[in-house]
Amino acid sequence: MNRETQPIPYAERGRMCAIVIIERMRPRFGLVLFLPLLLAAWLVGADHASAHDQLVGSNPSAGTDLHKAPTSLRLTFSDTVHDTGVAVRVTDASGRQLQSGDPVVADDVVTQRLESTKTPGTVRVVWHVSSADGHPVSGNFNFSINAAEAAGPTSAPKSAPTSKAPSSSGLQRTSGRSSDETSYSTSVPSFERPTDKTNNEPLLIIGIAVVGLLVVGGVAALIRLHARGDDADL
Hints:
Largest sheet: 4 strands, antiparallel
Region (Disordered): 151-196
Domain CopC: 52-145
Pfam family, one: CopC
Transmembrane segments: 203-223
Strand order of the largest sheet: 1-3-6-5
Radius of gyration: 35 Å
Number of helices: 4
Main location: other
Number of strands: 8
């Protein structure tokens, strides 16, 4: 006596087909997903590495030729720096270190008091700080001091006064001194902090697009492989 075969419900058929597809695609599916995840991890690491604090300005600035030795050095960074692990060394042309006391940290600005120097020439600045993410950052730059001003003003020979009225040479010395102060104040420009966050946007957008293309391509490849497997079974 023949028994009639009961038809399998469509829902059960769909579930069984899904199980078969998953079992066939499991080894390949892991490999296809691994590559986009690896690329995404690399992009996150690159973005994190570029987030370290950077020196965006200094006063005096790098390459500046000053007419007067500065009394302090100010370093401005792209983000807040830790007040521990900060070191600043300033050396004049003779090799004498000019830093006086410990550097002072206020948010993203590090200020170092300097001793006066009469040695003209190149001044070397070497700095080391800890960025907001705890990563150590260091760098260096140079500025110079004008030879005539660093040597100090030359005293004119004394002569007997002829009258009580102020001499023209005294007026010239006063005018020259104010001119030097003006030239020093204008030779150290103020810095505007650039927004460093916008530099990483193109890389992030390209990375997202590449990951999306890899995912779409992987799904398409899996569909083609599954279709070939069905044709082979037939």
